[in-house]
Specification:
- The complex is a heterodimer of chains A (1136) and B (117).
- By secondary structure, chain A is an alpha+beta fold.
- In chain A, β23 and β24 form a beta hairpin.
- Chain A is rod-shaped, with a radius of gyration of 70 Å.
- With 117 residues, chain B is α/β, with parallel strands linked by helices.
- Classes of the chains: A alpha+beta (1136), B alpha/beta (117).
- At the A-B interface, α26, α27 and α28 of A face β4, α2 and α3 of B.
């Protein structure tokens, strides 16, 4: 019982702390208040239960009962104190003063509860005293332990990192011990002193015990329910490890079992205790009754002795015995004297009919009957007289009187029970000469004493003789008469034997055994054997009613004394308590069972959810890791385990996997998170992970802190192996630096290329015989194109154009070598072919890189117009003659230069006329691609080149540069170097350009006038004749009006570009315009022979223009109609 | 830039066109000349001495005037053509359609003669 009480207080304390945990975790204030309230009820009730369980364990030799009002009230202090203390705990503050206060509060609550509860206890015949020192000690112990429990729970345990469960368990144990220590120390402080009261009447002793027991059971039940609720609340709040869910129903069933065990032991104890209580009270009442009866007997014996020894009696007796003849005794003086004395005694006492009898039973004297007679009544009880004759005074057993007597109500009753007290009368010689007997009314003091000794409703005391005959009146004679056990005119006393009818006659059952052959009841049987004893298991009394009883045999009084109480009555309280316990157990068990059922059902869903969650977590490509704030890894999904090399991950310290993350401890990780506790955080970082095999790899991890509803802190890291990403990154970095390096290369290569090429035009300003222009548009990644020209002796000029295989610095260097060598070889050689042959020899000799160059070399003698040239694998150049003929220099005089040694390169020759142009290019021109990836092509090149017949070398090159750029489109990467070189053999008369006018006109007629005015103005300045100006006015009017008419008049953005070159001997005009292709040359010539009426004007304008200019050509160039006009001045001048 | 001035010499209306007869001016020129014809100038002598050049647009105007006068049994002559205009007339074959005279006097002579006769 003590152990149970301690267990209850510990369980209650633990449950209360768990409830506080829930209160802290609860997000809503309502929920928080609910949990604090539940915890307080649990702790308060637990303390209370503990107290009463302790009190049940504490046995007093006397029956105890509790005052219900005060008992209920005693629960209050504990409840109030618990509420405050738990509310403090729920705040999670760490204030020391608050902690101390809570501890004191709890202790005071426990103390107050205890002493109030003690006051509620009433034990008859006992007075409670409290030892002041121990009282103080008990309070002190409670305070200290309560404070240390809170301190342990709040301050110490979290530092040890044991987790909330262990914290609560520790706190619960200490707090529970505090409660029970307080109780038991306080109990030693209590002294129970017997009071002076004599106990004869005992109220039903177990009557109130059941209250304590029931409430204690309720206390346990509440604690259990709180624990279960906490358990369930926590489980339902978040899906924990799935297996734990399996445990919950299991735990519940274990709890049910524990509950059942507790109830059974409580019941057993209760029963045992109840029996003990019953026995105690039976014995107490039996003993007190016996003592009282013995006292009563002694009193009468003493009185009888005193009178028997009195002078009067002794003298009279001596005289009467001498006579010894009954017939002579009739009117004896002595008799008369005695009779008077007897009567006076009767007057003053309760004795009636005092006799003096001799050994024969003859009445020597009496208070009533003067007639000498034998007193037959004593024949029934020879023992009584025998004892007197043996010299001892005695009290007889009740017996039926042989004469009618007045009963207690004054009526004459036959046979009225009677009893006597007698004492020997001694003669002078010391011998017993007579016996003095005094009749007593058994209905008097004797019956009063016996009937006083009763218990509860049904308990009564009996006196029986050795045969089982009832020697006392029953309290329930009426009932006995009703069931026919006693005849209506009879009494129970002296009429009823304590025999077992074998059936409950009170209940109306019929006895199958004849009255005369019924066995004695258990009690009577034992008493008849002179054995004292008791029975609380129950046996049938003479009515057949199951009773408990205690009995004794008083040999001196020659009577048995028994107290019996019906089992039903005796154990009514016990049964009630049992009902309460069984009921509570059943209800709790049912609730628990329902919970288990609910959880089992919920578990299915939870399991499903958990499985799904787990499956999701497991199959996520990212690793997901959780670890406790102690840095121990608690979970890791499959990807995570795979990332860490499939080694054991769970249970490992975090630092083993992520050593360079500071997160070895809670504080470190919190430090990383750097946010207030409980707020969602997310920190992404890159750290190095250590695989199980100690290899390292980079990983990216997102950290977050999760505070579980239980208050537990977990860290979650979602991470991925970023080895691949890192590799790509580093490759990228490498590529970038490579790019940077390459960029440097490119600029170096470009520098080499640029520095090697002659870029100042005109290169030979003094020379009027040739016009030279060249351009190189390098590709992004420099190729090895180059061009070159240099003067040789005799006014000759060498031209070269080449394309080195490969790109970048090597190509640029090779180009530089080739170019340098070429010049020297050309100067040393007689022909371009010889120069190429020697150059090829030089280059191919030490050409480990297998580079080569396509090369065209030409030497022009302007004086004769002769060009000697040699082509080593290069694109054939063109000659554009002054007359507009395009000659492709097809000849190939050897392979590309620098590959095959010992190759003879041939030389070819062509003669240029004045105005002819030698045009050279590299394949970057013909292989230029447009957006549709179509090559520019030789065909287009030839067509454009042909249209540039009247253009200078410079203009030709520039036109192509412009053309190719437009062809490739904006933003397109030029994939290869584009190199162009042109040399024009200038007319004798031709001088360098006088003037170039470029105009861009809008697409409207008014612009014609503006153009004409501009032209006139310049023409005047340049000494151009009026007639030429007028002709151009006409030409412009005709062509531009045509363009405007046929062009898109709605397109305001359309522009007409006019380029006018006024040379010394001619004027060249180029008109470009957008619009549909229109070749003026294709227009039908008008019939000029038609008369006035039939004359058609169509085509006339074009005809006039054609007639006015020396040449008019048309080209369609990239969406543009280009009309080139040429008018020689001398002819016109001459004509004018 | 074109300007036409008129004066009469007997029944002959002399229109002097100064500037150029090109696309820009031909519309105006045509309107002016048509107006003159409508107001009774059946014999029209156009003095081109001050005409810088003529384009096909101008030729079209002259052709139109010539046809108009031809329908009215009128008479059109051109006089004082400069080299360029002469060349254009030659190129376009207009010299065979419209009578051109070296001077006003020459032109008037014929016209007046016709009148007289």
């Amino acid at each position: 019982m003590v152990a149970l009480s301690v267990a209850v207080s510990i369980i209650a304390a633990y449950a209360a702390l768990e409830a506080v945990e829930r209160a802290t975790a609860a997000r809503q204030r309502k929920a928080s208040v609910f949990w604090v309230g539940l915890g307080a009820v649990c702790l308060g009730f637990g303390v209370w239960s503990m107290h009463f369980l302790g009190m049940i364990g504490f046995r007093l030799p006397i029956p105890v009962h509790y005052e219900p009002g005060l008992t209920a009230l005693s629960a209050l202090p504990g409840l109030i104190a618990s509420t405050f203390a738990l509310a403090f705990l729920a705040t999670r503050t760490n204030n020391l003063a608050m902690l101390l206060m809570s501890g004191v509060l709890i202790a005071v609550g426990i103390g107050t509860m205890h002493y109030t509860g003690m006051e509620a206890m009433h034990a008859q015949g006992v007075v409670m005293w409290y030892d002041a020192t121990r009282f103080t000690l008990s309070i002190l112990i409670a305070v200290l332990l309560a404070i240390s429990a809170l301190f342990l729970k709040r301050t110490v345990a979290p530092k040890l990192g044991l987790g909330p469960r262990v914290e609560n368990a520790l706190g619960g144990v200490v707090l529970g011990i505090a409660v029970s220590s307080m109780h038991y120390v306080a109990m030693t402080a209590t002294w129970f002193l017997p009071s002076a009261d004599v106990v004869l009447h005992v109220a039903n002793p177990v009557n109130n015990t059941f209250l304590a027991v029931g409430l204690a059971a309720a206390g346990i039940a509440i604690a259990l329910i709180v624990i279960i609720s906490v358990l369930i609340d926590r489980r339902l709040r978040y899906v924990d490890i799935t297996s734990e869910l399996v445990l919950v129903p299991g735990v519940i069933f274990v709890l049910i079992a524990v509950l059942a065990y507790v109830s059974v032991s409580v019941m057993r104890d209760l029963e045992e205790r109840a029996e003990q209580d019953v026995l105690n009270s039976l014995k107490t009442v039996l003993n007190t009754t016996h003592e009282a009866l013995t006292g009563w007997r002694q009193q009468h014996i003493t009185a009888a002795r005193v009178w028997a020894d009195s002078e009067v009696v002794r003298l009279a007796a001596a005289g009467l015995v001498k006579a010894n003849k009954p017939e002579e005794m009739a009117l004896d003086d002595a008799q008369e004297k005695l009779r008077i004395w007897f009567i006076s005694v009767e007057l003053w006492t309760d004795y009636r009919e005092i006799f003096l009898i001799d050994r024969e039973g003859w009445i020597l004297a009496s208070s009533h009957n003067q007639r000498p007679d034998r007193l037959n009544v004593f024949l029934e009880q020879p023992d009584f007289l025998e004892e007197i004759w043996s010299g001892e005074p005695a009290v007889s057993l009740p017996m039926p009187s042989d004469v009618p007597l007045l009963n207690e109500s004054g009526a004459i009753e036959i046979p009225y029970p009677t009893m006597f007290v007698g004492a020997p009368v001694f003669g002078t010689d010391g011998r017993i000469i007579a016996a003095l007997t005094l009749r007593l009314d058994p209905m008097g003091e004797y019956s009063r004493l016996l009937q006083q000794g009763r218990i509860g409703e049904s308990g009564q005391t009996y006196a029986i003789d050795r045969h089982g005959l009832l020697l006392s009146e029953s309290r329930f004679t009426k009932q006995l008469k009703r069931i026919g056990m006693v005849a209506p005119t009879q009494r129970a006393m002296l009429n009823l034997y304590s025999t077992n009818p074998g059936a409950d006659l009170v209940e109306g059952q019929m006895s199958l055994i004849a009255k005369s052959s019924r066995p004695l009841t258990l009690m009577a049987a034992q008493v008849s054997k002179g054995v004292s004893g008791s029975d609380v298991d129950g046996y049938r009394d003479f009515r057949g009613v199951p009773v408990v009883g205690a009995w004794l045999w008083d040999d001196e009084a020659r009577m048995g004394l028994a107290i019996e109480q019906s089992v039903e009555d005796a154990k009514r309280a016990l049964l009630a308590a049992r009902n309460v316990v069984v009921g509570l157990t059943m209800i709790t068990a049912t609730l628990l069972f329902l919970l288990a059922l609910l959880l089992t059902l919920a578990r299915g869903r939870r399991l499903e959810t958990a499985r799904r969650t787990a499956a999701i977590l497991e199959t996520t490509a990212d690793g997901i890791l959780t670890w406790s704030y102690t840095g121990i890894i608690e979970s890791c999904n499959r990807s995570g385990r795979a990332i860490f090399g499939d080694g054991p991950v769970l249970g490992e310290p975090l630092k083993k996997l992520l050593p360079d993350m500071a997160g070895q401890s809670y504080q470190d990780v919190r430090g990383i998170l750097e946010t207030p506790k409980g707020e969602p955080v997310n920190v992404r970082m890159e750290v190095s992970g250590w695989r199980y095999d100690q290899s390292r790899f980079p990983l990216e991890i997102s950290l977050s802190e999760t505070i579980m509803p239980s208050g537990e802190q977990l860290f979650t890291g979602i991470f991925r192996d970023i080895t691949e990403r890192k590799r790509i990154e580093s490759e990228l970095v490498g590529a970038i630096s490579e790019q940077e390096r390459l960029g440097a290369d490119l600029s170096i290569a470009r520098d080499i290329q640029r520095n090697m090429l002659p870029v100042v035009f005109p290169p030979f300003p003094d020379r009027l015989d040739v016009e030279i222009y060249a351009a190189l548009s390098p590709a992004y990644e420099v190729g090895g194109d180059f061009y070159d020209f240099f003067e040789l002796g005799g006014g000759r000029i060498c031209f070269a154009i080449g394309d080195v295989s490969g790109k970048g610095i090597p190509a640029a260097l090779f180009m530089a070598i080739a170019k340098t060598l070429l010049e020297s070889r050309v100067r040393d050689s007689r022909s371009p072919g010889e120069a190429l042959t020697r150059l090829n020899q030089d280059l191919s000799k030490r050409n480990e890189a297998n580079m080569f160059v396509t090369l065209f070399v030409a030497i022009l003698d302007p004086a004769t117009g002769v060009v000697t040239y040699s082509n080593g694998g290069h694109n054939p150049p063109y000659v554009l003659t002054d007359s507009g003929e395009l000659i492709r220099l097809e000849g190939r005089h050897g392979p590309v230069v620098g590959v095959v040694a010992d190759v003879e390169y041939g030389t070819a020759e062509i003669k240029l006329s004045q105005g002819d142009t030698l045009f050279m290019y590299t394949d970057g021109v013909t292989e230029a691609m447009n957006a549709e990836r179509k090559l520019y092509g030789e065909e287009q090149l030839e067509s454009v080149l042909a249209s540039l017949r009247y253009e200078s070398a410079t203009q030709i090159v520039k036109t192509f540069i412009d053309q190719i750029a437009r062809y490739e489109g904006e933003g397109a990467d030029q994939t290869d170097d584009i190199t162009l070189q042109a040399v024009r053999l200038v007319h004798d008369k031709e001088e360098s350009k006088v003037l170039v006018l470029e105009l861009t006109l809008e697409n409207r007629l008014e612009e014609i006038t503006r153009l004409n005015e501009r032209f006139d103005e310049i023409a005047t300045k340049n000494g151009i004749s009026l007639s030429v100006s007028q002709k151009f006015n006409i030409i412009f009017d005709e062509l531009l009006s045509n363009i405007v008419y046929y062009g898109d008049q709605n397109d305001n953005s359309a522009r007409i570009r006019i380029r006018i070159e006024m040379l010394k001997d001619r004027i060249k005009v180029a008109i470009s315009s957008s619009g549909l292709p229109f070749d003026p040359n294709s227009a039908n010539a008008p019939d000029l022979t038609q008369g006035l009426e039939d004359r058609e004007l169509g085509g006339l304008g074009i005809h006039i223009v054609k007639s006015l200019v020396d040449e008019m050509t048309y080209h369609r160039r990239i969406g543009q109609n280009v009309i080139n006009l040429l008018m020689y001045l001398d002819k016109n001048e001459a004509e004018s | 830039m074109m300007n036409i001035s008129y004066k009469s010499a007997g029944d002959v209306t002399i229109a002097r066109i100064a500037g150029s007869l090109d696309t820009a001016s031909s519309v105006e020129a045509e309107a002016s000349l048509c107006e003159a014809i409508d107001s009774g100038a059946a014999k029209l002598l156009i003095d081109l001495g001050k005409l810088d050049f003529i384009s096909s647009a101008g030729l079209r105007v002259l052709l139109g005037i010539a046809r108009r006068l031809g329908k009215q049994q009128g008479l059109l002559r051109l006089a004082n053509l400069n080299d360029t205009v002469t060349e254009v007339f030659a190129i376009s074959g207009f010299d065979s359609i419209i009578e051109t005279c070296p001077s006003i006097a020459d032109a008037l002579q014929g016209m007046s003669q016709t009148d007289i006769t």
